Amino acid sequence: MRRNAVLKPLPSEDDQAARFVRQREADRTAVAEDYVELIADLLRAEGEARAVDLARRMGVSQATVANTITRLQRDGLVETRPYRGLFLTEAGAELATRAKARHELVVRFLIAVGLDAETAEADAEGLEHHASEKALAAFARFLDAHNGKRR
Amino acid sequence: MRRNAVLKPLPSEDDQAARFVRQREADRTAVAEDYVELIADLLRAEGEARAVDLARRMGVSQATVANTITRLQRDGLVETRPYRGLFLTEAGAELATRAKARHELVVRFLIAVGLDAETAEADAEGLEHHASEKALAAFARFLDAHNGKRR
DNA sequence: TCCAAAACTTAGCCTAGGCTATAGAGTGAT
DNA sequence: ATCACTCTATAGCCTAGGCTAAGTTTTGGA
């Protein structure tokens, strides 16, 4: 039963390198996206986003959050008012909106292809940072096509 | 047209933290998986896997490869015979096999939901490390279900 | 009002994963 | 047999993203 087709040739060195480079870039932005997304969620749901709560929700120490927030401030995504919580800049809010939209899309897509809601939510956390625009478009098309049938 | 449903409540702190922790664990193993997968591919396709070639295909300097290989050796995944190339240990080969199977599954799945082969291949590079076993199982089921129709 | 608890900051440390520059080793072609 | 070229290793540096421990501020309740 084994398909003994011609072994798939390796991609060209340049193509493959380009993929890995893009990959590493995505990794670098992932943390920033997770933070602004979470800050936006907290602001919406609780009215404020405290560093302590971020630490608890990210599963990380307060010191790590402080560190990360400093970077996000440097990058113009977040503003802090000590003892008043964290706020998003224009750019931060925009990034959060895009991140959230992507997250939601990925979750809905995963559910549509048969994953339970819990796992979909958990996996989306990782997958959302690595789906290209083309992939997201494909997911959206898939959801559209299947919205007539179920739901 | 805006669905103005009740705002989705935040997940519990513990659940959310657990997701992010799992996330970070996946990130840590991703590089190792990429390396052993690539080494396996090179061994298969070219008969040998040289550090130089890894550097070119990973889009990284030779020094970085040397560094990474040292870690992989320490972790019992890779063996080196200088000027003879790199080899996988038992554990390394096993990891490579699993990684490759996952990679292939993700690629086929992405194509099945409408992505072009090129993008599927590129995106799989990132996505493969963040799909849980449950997600992979769902992808496999999806492919099975759709294999009767097309192809 | 005041003071303990909670929130935040700072210092110091670590690993992974990048880099450049340079030195050293091995191979293969002449 | 040699020597140029290729491959590998090493030194030294950097950032991100973790940690613990030990301050410092602020807040809010008694």
From TrEMBL, chains A, B:
PROSITE patterns: HTH_DTXR (PS50944). Pfam families: Fe_dep_repr_C (PF02742), Fe_dep_repress (PF01325). SUPFAM superfamilies: Winged helix' DNA-binding domain. Keywords: Activator, Cytoplasm, DNA-binding, Manganese, Repressor, Transcription, Transcription regulation. GO terms for molecular function: DNA binding; DNA-binding transcription factor activity; protein dimerization activity; transition metal ion binding. Homodimer. NCBIfam families: PRK11050.1. This is Transcriptional regulator MntR. It comes from Neoroseomonas eburnea.
